[in-house]
DNA sequence: AACAAGTTCAACCGCATAACA
DNA sequence: GTGTTATGCGGTTGAACTTGT
């Protein structure tokens, strides 16, 4: 039997030192990413592979964009979250230079609070105070305001994602509700074009294709899941 | 200046699943 | 087909930092 990934004894934990960072950077520059299990030993690090991977992906990678999120990034996160739920890696994948951890943290510390303040449930993007009569479906024009927050404010119509944070009940659940529920209707002007990506994301893509008003193209970009958002 | 409360964010943990034997 | 390991993901934690009193 092979040893488990994280052998608890003899491995460092907690914050990384500059020396550790440098060792990791040097090693990956020379050997590239991959084989995280054997990397710590080869790089002379007393860390588990998991920890090295996380440090590299979330902090040391050269293409990481640090600093505040721009307004358009924030809008995109909201839109994607409405559609995808807490699938941070998928959301981050649409924000160049941003990591899933960063997006998740930003959501929890900034956006979530903002939405709550506005009376919007961040879990399902619905208003907490629901009008007595539901709006008819598919009648609202796309938001004309410059960002999603404005759209929320002006139209008070929130995205479709269901209680479970997932995507599985986005469009279908609305059909099920059939106007009986007071749930508001999607109006984020999400026009999706999805290309079948790498095998790993096929399940996701199928779900998306099934649950959203989307166009599935036959184009495949190797190892690059493609989800185009037009706002 | 000192402390408390609130916020941010890097890092850890556990689970799911892909990959492999 | 089954069992085991490696990897990736999302939830959570806690130290560091900021703000208010």
Automatic annotation (TrEMBL):
A molecular function (GO) term: DNA binding
Residue span(s) of domain HTH myb-type: 8-60, 61-115
PROSITE patterns assigned: HTH_MYB, MYB_LIKE
Alphabetical list of Pfam families matching this protein: Myb_DNA-binding
Stretches with biased composition (Polar residues): 162-173
GO annotations of cellular component type: nucleus
Compartment(s) where it occurs, according to its Swiss-Prot or TrEMBL record: Nucleus
The entry's keywords: DNA-binding, Nucleus, Repeat
Region (Disordered): 129-179
Domain Myb-like: 8-60, 61-111
Protein name, UniProt field: Uncharacterized protein
Organism: Rubroshorea leprosula
């Amino acid at each position: 039997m092979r040893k488990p990934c994280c052998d608890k004894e003899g491995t460092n934990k907690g914050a990384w030192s500059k020396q550790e960072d440098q060792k990791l950077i040097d090693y990956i520059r020379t050997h590239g990413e991959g084989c995280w299990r054997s990397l710590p030993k080869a790089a002379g690090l007393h860390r588990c592979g998991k920890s090295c991977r996380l440090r590299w992906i979330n902090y040391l990678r050269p293409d990481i964009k640090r600093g505040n999120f721009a307004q358009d990034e924030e809008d995109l996160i909201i839109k994607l979250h409405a559609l995808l739920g807490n699938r941070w890696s998928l959301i981050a994948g649409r924000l160049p230079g941003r990591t899933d951890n960063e997006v998740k943290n930003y959501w929890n510390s900034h956006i979530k609070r903002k939405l709550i303040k506005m009376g919007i449930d961040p879990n399902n993007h619905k208003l907490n105070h629901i009008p007595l009569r539901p709006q008819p479906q598919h009648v609202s024009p796309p938001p004309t305001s410059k960002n999603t927050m404005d759209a929320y404010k002006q139209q008070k119509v929130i995205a479709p994602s269901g209680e479970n944070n997932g995507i599985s009940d986005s469009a279908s659940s609305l059909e099920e509700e059939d106007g009986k529920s007071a749930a508001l209707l999607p109006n984020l002007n999400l026009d999706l074009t999805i290309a079948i990506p790498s095998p790993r994301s096929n399940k996701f893509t199928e779900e998306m294709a099934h649950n959203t008003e989307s166009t599935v193209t036959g184009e495949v970009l190797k190892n690059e899941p493609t989800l185009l958002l037009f706002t």
